[in-house]
Write a structure and sequence with these properties.
It is a single chain. This protein is of the alpha+beta class. It folds into two domains: about 120 residues, Peptidoglycan synthesis regulatory factor (PBP3), Domain 2, CATH 2.60.410.10; about 260 residues, DD-peptidase/beta-lactamase superfamily (Beta-lactamase, 3-Layer(aba) Sandwich). About 30% of the residues lie in helices and about 30% in strands. Helix 2 packs across helix 5, helix 2 packs parallel to helix 7 and helix 5 crosses helix 6. The protein contains eleven helices and 17 strands.
């Protein structure tokens, strides 16, 4: 890494004590989750753990598997390789899926947006497979991409065998890994436009009209909850990865292996109550906010906007303050051109008195092309003239 020496001092944030990157140890005595095999509570921007219970225990995730499915769907939409308006034809394989479904018929066509609603609201297994086949060519190839993404995210306790979470041997995850997946999914902030819908309809106005109702009832009954994904099988019992956004602070709460939907929801609400009663955040940068200008003599463009790939905040207990907060931009050495929009070129680190509070990837706002030979020659001549003067 090469530091360009760019320091942004955040004025107006004065503090008396630092916030540790993890808060879990001191809170283990307070058993927030009384029902459930494992659980975790995470602040989304900093990734700070506020509470955990057996968070690294490998368990079947059931339909929470679809969080990874949604990550790859949102990635494809973000890259432009998939559009919401595009129609997808359901295969025999997709239409044959059991469990939660939107009852696709083989050969039926739906838009990507309709199928996305089917996944995000109703947890449709058939909709998940239809989108997987569209993106990767087959469900098997899509599952390979799911596992590759898990590796990229550093999820050492997760392995997928399908896109849906239907029971399968050697298909597992942990509360901690599910929270990290949720954190990744929430980079695509518009995903909550779908996961927050309580009810909607597919095939509206036809004889096959289908009522979608959200499997996550907390989106209606807990203020601020706008996602993400429930799960249930006999083996997994009742699971939920939930997210809420209140007072400009987004948190993620996961419970796996609860005995009933009621007890699962009670555990999630207890964690959310604890988070919002105890902590608050200071927002520093919004996702894709311009934080610097990047220069590369070999680039066609001379001034390129550098942005963060996710929102950046600092976390603190209510009433506390943090002092001497600095943001340091650190760029990768030997960045090779051309570069695509969103490609990593460095990191932004937020520190206080030498302790790291938050980190985000730096990317470029637009594609960057390599300059032609004639342009490079003129620039070189200009630099020689400057050096001689």
């Amino acid at each position: 890494m090469k530091t360009f020496g760019v320091f942004v001092t955040i004025v107006c944030i004065m503090l008396t004590s630092l916030v540790s990157p993890t808060f879990a140890a001191e809170e283990k005595k307070n058993e927030l989750v009384k029902n459930g095999k494992s659980a975790i509570l995470l602040e989304r921007d900093t990734g700070s753990v506020l509470y955990e219970k057996n968070a690294d225990e490998k368990l079947p995730p059931a339909s929470m598997t679809k969080i990874m499915t949604l990550i790859l769907i949102m990635e494809a939409l973000d890259k432009g390789t998939l559009t919401l308006e595009e129609k997808v034809r359901a295969s025999e394989n997709a239409a044959s899926m059991g469990g939660s479904q939107i009852f696709l018929e083989a050969g039926e066509e739906m838009t990507v947006e309709e199928l996305l609603k089917g996944v995000a609201i109703a947890s449709g297994n058939d909709a998940s497979v239809a989108l997987a086949e569209r993106i990767a060519g087959s469900e098997e190839a899509f599952v390979e991409e799911m596992n590759k993404k898990s590796e990229q995210l550093g999820l050492t306790n997760t392995k997928f065998q399908n896109t849906t979470g239907l029971p399968a041997e050697d298909h597992y995850s942990t509360a901690e890994d599910m929270a990290i997946m949720a954190k990744e999914l929430l980079k695509y902030e518009h995903v909550t436009n779908y996961t927050s819908i309580y009810e909607d309809y597919l095939r509206k106005g036809t004889e096959d009209e289908f009522w979608l109702v959200n499997t996550n009832k907390l989106v209606k009954f807990y203020p601020g909850v706008d996602g993400l994904k429930t799960g249930y099988t006999k083996e997994a019992q009742y699971c939920l990865t939930a997210t809420a956004n209140k007072d400009d602070m987004r948190v993620i709460a996961v419970v796996m292996g609860a005995e009933s939907p009621k007890k699962r929801n009670e555990s999630i609400m207890a964690m959310l109550d604890y988070a919002y009663n105890t902590y608050e955040t200071e927002s520093l940068y919004k996702r894709h906010e311009v934080v610097d200008q990047w220069h590369n003599i070999r680039a066609k463009q001379q001034h390129m906007d550098v942005v963060t790939n996710e929102s950046v905040s600092i976390l603190k207990r209510k009433g506390e303050q943090v002092e001497d907060v600095q943001s340091e931009l650190m760029y990768n050495d030997n960045v090779k051109l051309p570069l695509k929009k969103g490609q990593e070129i460095g990191v932004l680190k937020v520190t206080s008195k030498g302790e790291e509070l938050s980190e985000a990837t730096l990317t470029l706002k637009k594609d960057v092309e390599e300059a032609g030979i004639w342009t490079l020659w003129k620039r070189s001549m200009k630099e020689l003239v400057k050096g001689a003067s």
